[in-house]
Amino acid sequence: MILPINIYSDDILRQKATPLKGVDSGIKELIKSMFDSMHNASGIGLAAPQIGHSIRLLVLDISCIAKYASELPMVVINPHILAVKGSNEMEEGCLSIPGVQGDVLRPASITLKYRDANFVEQTGEFSGMLARVLQHEIDHLDGTLFVDRMEKRDRRKVQQELAALSSGNVKADYPVVAREQIAAIQG
Ligand code: ZN
Q1: Could you tell me the distance, in angstroms and rounded to a whole number, from the CA of residue 110 to the centre of ligand 1?
Q2: Between vectors from CA 86 to CA 80 and to CA 90, what angle results, nearest 5°?
Q3: How many angstroms does the Cα of residue 28 sit away from the middle of ligand 1?
Q4: What's domain 5-186's superfamily in CATH?
């Protein structure tokens, strides 16, 4: 099922998400919907808070990028970054911040402990695009967005776009929960 994606300035994107205690049929269904929603929006990563669930769960699939065509999709639950190495700058975007891109400096590789889709503990070392997407999505679980990590000068250049998103002026070719809809639900 394709779920609408929460947009910049939505409170849920600023919350620290809660760890999962296990994977039941509801979570399995949610994981499937997260992949559907991510693929529908041509995204390569999606964190549960972006579809309205403040839990420590993310999915990613970078196989649509030709260079990474053989990379398998990943389900990551309760991730902990154990170690980082090096650093590099890469341009990022986010399904919750449509139309905005910017360079972000991050560690180049990470050692990650997490639970997989069967809630089995895994430890792995990730570099390149996988390390990049994992760190971006793990940030979502802590209420951090990539624009928070942009250099001030670069951030000023996208300030107008961010203000437009905050006021509910969202142009995306996938379903979103924009500000006035939230007001309608709450009101
Ligand atoms: Zn994002």
Answers
A1: 18
A2: 90
A3: 21
A4: Peptide deformylase (3.90.45.10)
